[in-house]
Amino acid sequence: MARVAKTWARVLVLALGFLVAAQAQAAKWKYCDGEWEARIMNATVVPDRPRAGQEINVLIDGEIGRLVKGGELDLTVLFHKIPVHKEKDDLCDRLESCPANGAFTVNAKQKLPPLTLPGNHELKITAKDTEDKDLVCMVLDLNIKGPALALRWHKP
């Protein structure tokens, strides 16, 4: 009986591992035109295909060659190249560790509005330091699913 329980526990751990791997995959992205002080190593969107009305988490791993004590993060969401949402955040609020020097991780969580149009979107992210000097600019591809529909059966 103990052997069966251990086998099921291993199967469960493997299944959960595959589920997590399927939820988080490297996102397609590119640098904006220009030269940038910071380098992006990886960008991940969780879940891999976000849904309108649910939380999205964008994780960006990179490197910077100097001390950055703070700054601003400009976020612009584009739908068919048309800006549909703009937001400015304090850079330190989105960095896992601030000030940053060397490796850094941006961890941005936000709930998508329920009326987000499904389809291909772009998220343009520009980071500036406290002296308004551009650190990096990138465009991340997002494919957003429509909201989950809850069907309810009513008895007449």
TrEMBL record:
Q: Which residues form the MD-2-related lipid-recognition domain?
A: 29-142
Q: Which residues form a coiled coil?
A: none
Q: Which UniProt keywords apply?
A: Lipid transport, Signal, Transport
State the Pfam families in the record: E1_DerP2_DerF2
Signal sequence region: 1-26
| Single GO MF annotation | sterol binding
| Superkingdom classification of source | Eukaryota
Q: Which SUPFAM superfamilies does UniProt cross-reference here?
A: E set domains (SSF81296)
List the GO biological process terms. sterol transport
Q: Which family does it belong to?
A: Belongs to the NPC2 family.
Describe the task this protein carries out.
Catalyzes the intermembrane transfer of phosphatidylglycerol and phosphatidylinositol.
Question: Subunit composition?
Answer: Monomer.
Query: How is this protein named in the record?
Result: MD-2-related lipid-recognition domain-containing protein
